[in-house]
TrEMBL record:
GO terms for cellular component: plasma membrane. Keywords: Cell inner membrane, Cell membrane, Membrane, Transmembrane, Transmembrane helix. NCBIfam families: pqiA_fam (TIGR00155). Pfam families: PqiA. This is Paraquat-inducible membrane protein A. The keyword Membrane applies. InterPro entries: PqiA-like, PqiA-like_proteobact, PqiA-PqiB_transport. It is a multi-pass membrane protein. Belongs to the PqiA family. It comes from Rhodopila globiformis. The lineage of its organism: Bacteria, Pseudomonadati, Pseudomonadota, Alphaproteobacteria, Acetobacterales.
Amino acid sequence: MSTTTAPVTMIADAVPMTAPKLYECPDCGQMQVVPAMPPAARALCLRCDAVLRHTRHHPLGLPAALNLSALILFAIAGTLTIMSVTTAGLSRAASLVSGPAELDHYGLWELSLVVLVTTFAAPLARVLCMLAVLGGLQLRRPPAELRAIFAWVERLRPWSMIEIYMLGLYVAYVRLGAIAHVNLGPATYALLGLIVVVWLADLTLDDQAVWEAMEPPNRRRLAHIRSRRLAAACLTAHRWRIGCDVCGLVSRAAPGTPCPRCGYRLRDRKPHAIQRTWAYVIASLILYIPANVYPVLTVIRLGAGQPNTILGGVKELIDAGMWPLAALVFFASITVPVLKLIGLSFLLAATQLGTPWRLHDRTVLYRIVDAIGRWSMIDIFMESILVALVQFGTVASVYPGPGAVAFAAVVILTMLAARSFDPRLMWDRMSGHVQPGTAPRPVPRAARQAAAQAAAS
């Protein structure tokens, strides 16, 4: 396993605030030394350009203040009205939890649970976890439980979909304009502020600074003493080194043993990544058929109406002259799931064949696939808002359909497929990756010299 020094983008003449440290790239598995970094510096993987670390000027204090603001905004968004509609002298209002409650009323408890978790439970839990960790670090002796809590922050990230919910709210607002008079409530503006504040909180957070602050003081001092010898030591030691998938610490340990810093089980690669990802992809392909065949919702106006599939809803928007909105729904609900399934199938097939063809581009493809899949929930969120607001009997009503359950399952399964795939497997054949317990490959002389210079600087 070769070890080299990662390039760092930094401000000239800046004072370093971190010590040199060994990192394993989460996207390609390359072991490399990240040199001492000043604030506002970015270290990129020398092989696949993944961000290994991004230091901040205020890595703990500013994110804590922003997350506290996010909690206040969430309290406003969760208790006040998001939107209200009026038609034929009848009015109805909806809050953040009205959609899941109405979906459960029609027997679609699975869909209700998905909407409730992604728009309420997961975002709230993530903000509370961040406040618990950043607040606990202010204590003289931070509790050891903070490590398990902080691990959940990253796990909850893809399932927190407030920004996608706002796009669904926008689509519902435009569609409701043709049925009734619509008023936006104060919770809508609170949600907009929440999106901005959470984005800033994530932008200003240095997760490695948080993990380092949670280390026991004696271990922190020992790590500081040994930091400048790390580069040379990592090249000459014969024991296997493995990076933790949770906290990123590279340690001399065997797979299956607890990480010395966070306590989670170490894994050389994700277990059964290929088989597990194929299972999710095949299940998504099967469910994608009923998701497009069965109706997702039924719109009744003046006693007349018919069920609509996803494509039927797009056609309805086109007939109403809402071309931009139709394009948005078509891209999120049709194009994204199809491209994601094709992309995952291509990555799986290429990995099993072991081809080194365009590894960097395939890694970029994986990052895109992992990022865009959650945006297909726009249609589900729009439906939950419409069902909660438009219940005026024969005047105007919206009812959910079974196709929405199948479509939500497709979105979740494709997200799980992307999270199950291990992109490091694509690089293993080219890099000569060996399994733990076997002798590592000799380190090139140039790599040894670069790492030694980084350790001595």
